[in-house]
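User: Teach me something about this protein's shape.
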Amino acid sequence: MNKPREYLGILLQTFLMLMLGNIGFVLRSVQTDAFSVLLPLILGIDWLLLIVLPGRRVSGSAKLGLLSKGLRLIRIHRLSTAAEIVLAIVLTVRRLREGDWPSWFDSWALAVTIVVFVVAQLGILTSGALRILVTARQVKIGHYIALFFFWWMPVVNLILIEHILRTARRELYFEAAVLERDAVRQESEVCKTKYPILMVHGIFFRDWQLMNYWGRIPAELQKNGAQIFYGGQQSAQSVAKSAQELHERITQVLAETGAEKVNIIAHSKGGLDSRYAIGLLGDDMRVASLTTINSPHHGCAWAQNALEKIPASVQEWIARRYESIFSILGDTAPAFLEGVRDLTPEACKRLNSLCPLPQQIPVHCVMSEMNHINSAPFPLWVSYLAMKLYDRNVRGDGLVPIESAKLDGAVFTMVPKTKYRGISHGDMIDLSRENIRGFDVREFYVHLVQDLKKQGL
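Assistant: First, the predicted structure itself:
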């Protein structure tokens, strides 16, 4: 993005908006009839094109072009409004001191100026705000709700607006940098591995095309050459049954691609499902590598504690409600409680004894950590609180303790802490589609797959 050129264009457009906003006074002082017609026409066409045209693409992206144009319009609105206020104050003070008020000051020129100024400013403000509303994905709905309720409060509304604009601006620069980075390495196909990638989801979710479990990650991997498939197992089932579904899915992927093996990247319970398929269903010869993301290999003690304390009748009620909903959403035989029970330390201990790490398959365990309860949106902060209430000294991602994500004999990677919030269980799959300062989740996965390619996998 050419910032000097952008700023110059904003200043030029601000000057034209000042001309348009004072058109009544300008026309009053003009003596040439032709100029009196041409000037309003030119300024009016310029204003119309300014609020209607979509704007130049940014890094080849039309969406970022719209966002950039929206931010530009807001800047023009702010600068021209501020300049108009300063100009009005200066002229008023000057006239008061001199006592020389032109006869036309209270006439049609003032009325025309006010009407045109208000209409012109509302036009660019509305156009800019709508573009930001439609394209700025990092501006959350909570920001707009807060602005809706507090727009009438001085200072508070300005703080909210400034926060929205800064968030949108950061998104623009960040996403432009991502696109430029992808364009530079497009021909390198850094994620084009020998074997296809099978991404396996965790519990309480399904693989839906309209709401990808992995957020923006698969698209980023595909841009860089990866061949992506999904596990497709049900949202909640026992590890054994989920592993059987995964076993069948591996068969489908190999038949479709002609590949001999797959590289598995599995999140949460998906890591347990994958280990069961590899260790007990004969998929050790069909899996080239296993990467687990925040998987509870040794279970979650707080979850077992909750199962012991919550009455069985309440557990059954929750399970029935869950299963009825997910049966509609695509599950053929969801089993809420079976899935949860297989996440307890006792169940995971049995799994670990049955499924030791295969020597011929490289296993990589990845884990992250939340810094505090505000590191994640609802409902993850609820589970983080439950985890801390059970053991105040435990560290984890809001669902899985750090020690539970480790496996003896596997490579272990701890995601570096971010300065402000840390990385939650959901952040590791781009659940909120949020650009977290200090952690680019899409690029993190690119590096994971790039390492697989370097290993010849």
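Now, about its shape. The longest helix spans residues 62-98. The chain has a mean pLDDT of 85. If you'd like, I can walk through any region in more detail.
User: That's plenty for now, thanks!
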